């Protein structure tokens, strides 16, 4: 029988990830959520200039310089009696692995779409991951204060490209300079919009009018008002009714319109979101579904990040609590090493800032000090419970570089740096069969990860490196290390390497060679989605 206090705490939890194509305004929206929860006093502009604040969730120097998120950050705030955990993810496709792992830790997703650009490539990729997990997807169509595409066209595109039905919860009146506000379809009230000159702590002034109010008609003008009334009739007749069951199964996406930069439409979105989402639900393990309320503590590691605090050379393992209550100092069972351990320095993070936590509940994300013991996907349970959550898949790298160390005197720092970054899951390291770590090949899913590797090795470990691209696109596991490649005509297109654990792999330059190898040798399997 679960403790009533634990049950109440878990019911208050909401954990969601924010996903979008780069530049749709995802990090700005995250900041404004924090502003509403009182977690921060002013929101920074993401495209930081020398004299302005940076986004709270972008804490790496490279993020501040480029104005993009390259690593997921975890942010928690309280709002209207709920405890909300936001997982802000990188929008750039080169970091989709990090986003994928973060989505494994979320219970629902908020998809941010730019009103002038509609559904973009990266949104499609991330959306498919959400569909695979059947998690609820909420859509926030952002930047309505700029010229936007036709609203019906945007909804059609979401339905046709992403294959999910939509249900607009509110409706915009105009866009760009003509943007007058949003109409709440449930209350039949219109929130009017007045632009503000900057982001920060300010919020666009809002006045509420009933849809039939004469003042509203005067304010927006007869032409826009008539057009808006026609659109509302069309919306009421042509779009899906809101069906909570379908929303929670991820089959119907509630759509909201607003402007994150002007903090407009965000409170309406948050209030509906909290009403329509569920507290943390049970998760599948190798012993069936684990109930978040009745079962004691359990969690899984979905992210590892080294050097969040340069002064301490620390490594933080981020874990999503799946059931029960966590208390500082408690003993837990680590399934991978089959040993009991105490989680030291448990903390909750606001991007780079952190506070030590005494207790946390199912749905929360905590960071613990990692002495090099944890891997992504590890399960931690209450002693006596020995189950494991489903593993987190790894992606096959598509780009490869030879990494050459410029200063051999810094060998130790180099090995430590590449090993740690590999353990975070940002890169994969391969060695030639005959060579040690003196010459390594690094594989990544997205090219931008090479920039991050170079930047971090130089800034965090003081190692200068040169990256030499090598012409391989595919990689495969080899069950039989003595794979006979002599039957191939173009053996130069194949390279034998091994991973960090010594498992033999093959790198290929083209698909033609892969097909030849597959014909001649049974000892190959695809690398895609191999579990840890």
UniProtKB/TrEMBL annotation:
Pfam families in alphabetical order: EF-G_D2 (PF22042), GTP_EFTU (PF00009), RF3_C (PF16658)
Leader peptide range in chain numbering: none
Gene3D superfamilies per record: P-loop containing nucleotide triphosphate hydrolases, Peptide chain release factor 3, domain III, Translation factors
Superkingdom of origin: Bacteria
Segments forming domain Tr-type G: 11-281
Annotated binding of GTP, by residue: 20-27, 88-92, 142-145
Keywords assigned: Cytoplasm, GTP-binding, Nucleotide-binding, Protein biosynthesis
Family matches, as CDD domains: RF3
InterPro entries reported for this sequence: EF-G-like_DII (IPR053905), EFG_III/V (IPR035647), G_TR_CS (IPR031157), P-loop_NTPase (IPR027417), PrfC (IPR004548), RF3_C (IPR032090), RF3_dom_3_sf (IPR038467), RF3_GTP-bd (IPR041732)
Positions in coiled-coil regions: none
Subcellular location as annotated: Cytoplasm
Function of the protein: Increases the formation of ribosomal termination complexes and stimulates activities of RF-1 and RF-2. It binds guanine nucleotides and has strong preference for UGA stop codons. It may interact directly with the ribosome. The stimulation of RF-1 and RF-2 is significantly reduced by GTP and GDP, but not by GMP.
NCBIfam families (alphabetical): prfC, PRK00741.1, small_GTP
Official protein name in the record: Peptide chain release factor 3
Lineage of source species: Bacteria, Bacillati, Bacillota, Clostridia, Lachnospirales
Name of encoding gene: prfC
